[in-house]
Amino acid sequence: MKRKMLSLFLVAALALSLAACGGKESNEEADSGKKEEQKEEGSESGAPEQVKEPVTISFWHDRTSDTDQAFLQESIKEFNETNEFGITVEEVAQGYLDDVQAQVETAIAANNAPLLADLSCNGIPLFASEGVLADMTPYIERDNFDMDNVVKELTDYTYYEDKVVTMPYTRGTAILYYNKDLYAAAGMKEAPKSVEELNQYAKKIYDDSNGSIKGIAYTIEPNYYQHYLLASINGVGFMDEDGLGASCVTDGSMEQFLTDWYNWTEEGWCDIPALSGASSAVQEAFYNGQLAAFVSSSNRATSISQNAADANITLGMAATVGYGGPSAPLGGGSIGIIEKGHSQQEVAAAWEFVKFLMSDEQVAQNHIKTGVLPTTYSAAEGEELQTFWADPANEGYKISYDQVKVASAPCMSTYTSEWTSIVRSAYSELIQARSTGPKEIVENMAREAEALFPAK
C-alpha cells in the first residue's frame, strides 16, 4: 500500500544518509539538526513561531489550466509584494492532484519536500497519518482565525485526530457542461433531473446525427465522477463510510453501474474516454461539435466557458444527476504545510500564505476567475459574489456552490489512495480495453478489496 511505501521511502532515505556520512556529521545533517532544534524551541515556548526573517516557500500544485495558473500567479505576485515578512512564494506545477501526491512522496524520501502542496483526498490521509503535515491549530488560535467561517462541507479533509492539517483551497463539485442548441433540438427544455432523463436526450442526439455526435462523456475518476453515480445507487459511493471496506463490490451496486456504463458505451452514444489525456480529448471533442455534453469539475468553469464561447457554442451548465435524481461529487484539493524536514520559521511563513489565500478577497476572486468553490461563508455571502451570482450568465458557478450541501466525497481513509488505483485500473480494463465483462471485473475487484481492507 502507498502508506507502507511512504514509510519505506522515509526509512530508506534515512539509512542512505547515515551510510554516506560514515559517522561524521555532514552539512546537510547539521542543517537538519538545526531545524529540529528550532522546532523543539518553538514547541517549548508554548507559542507558535513568528516569522523573523525572509523565507522562500516552494508551493507544488495542480493548477495547470490557463485560467487556474494565471490566477495563482496573480495571487502569488500580490502576496510576495505586500507581505510584511519578506516571504517569497515560488509555484511549481506538477500535473494533476495525484501527480502532486506522487511527487511529494518522492521528495520526502529524498529529503527535498516542498513547504506547501495542494493535496487530494487520496494523499491527505497518508501524509497526515505519517506525521508529514503541520498542525495549523496553534496559528489559527494565535491569529483568531475563525474556523466556523470555513464552509463546513469543505472541511472533510481538514481535520485529522483533532488537528487542522489542511485548508480547503481548490475544492469543487462536478458540473454537467452541455451544448444548449443540441440538447434543445433533442427536446430538452430544462436541465435533466436524473441520469435516466439525461441519457434519453444523449441517445437521441447520437441517433439524430447518425452517430456523428456523442451525447455524453465521462472520464475515469473513481473517487469523483463515478463515485457520485454509485452513491446514487448505494448511498455511499465506491467506498464505505468508515473507509474500511467497499461493500459496493458485493452488494450489486458496482455491477449494476458498470453493466450500465459498459452498455452506454457499447450503444455508442456515451463516449469511451481516451487512453491518455482523456479530459483534454473530451473538451476538444465538445468544442469541435463532436460531443454534446460532458461532466467535469466546476474548477474548470471559467476556462470551459471561455473556450466554448471561442468555438461559438452556446454553453449550458447544470447540476450533475444520478440514478433517480440529483447526485454530485465533492473533490479537488486542500493546501497542506509539509512540516517534515522544515523549520518552525518555514512553517510559520507557510501559514501566512495559507491565511492570505483564505482571505475573503482571494476566496471570491478564486471562484470568479477559475470556478473553484468559495471556501468561506463570509466570501460567499459578501457583495462581490452575490453580485456575480445574480448575473444569469454565471448560473453555473452558483449551482456548483449550491450543490455542496448534497455532494459527497470518499471519507478520510488511509485506504483511499490504493483503492482508487485498483478501481481505476478495473474501470480502464472494462471501458477502455474492453477485455472482459462487468461481472468478471467486479469479481476481481472483490478479491482485491478483501486483500486490501481489514477484516470486519
C-alpha geometry: globular
Average pLDDT metric: 90
- Give me the secondary-structure category: alpha/beta
Report Rg. 23 Å
Major sheet characteristics: 7 strands, mixed
Unreliably modeled segments: 1-45
Helix content: 40-55%
Specify the number of helices.
Answer: 19
Query: End-to-end distance, in Å?
Result: 19 Å
Number of strands: 13
Strand content: 5-15%
Q: What can you see in these coordinates?
A:
- It is built from 19 helices and 13 strands.
- With 456 residues, it is α/β, with parallel strands linked by helices.
- Strands 1, 2, 3, 6, 9, 10 and 13 form a seven-stranded mixed beta sheet that branches. Strands 4-5 form a two-stranded antiparallel ribbon. Strands 7-8 form a two-stranded parallel ribbon.
- Strand 11 and strand 12 form a beta hairpin.
- The longest helix is centred in the N-terminal third of the chain and has 20 residues.
- The radius of gyration is 23 Å and the shape is globular.
- It starts with a helix and ends with a helix.
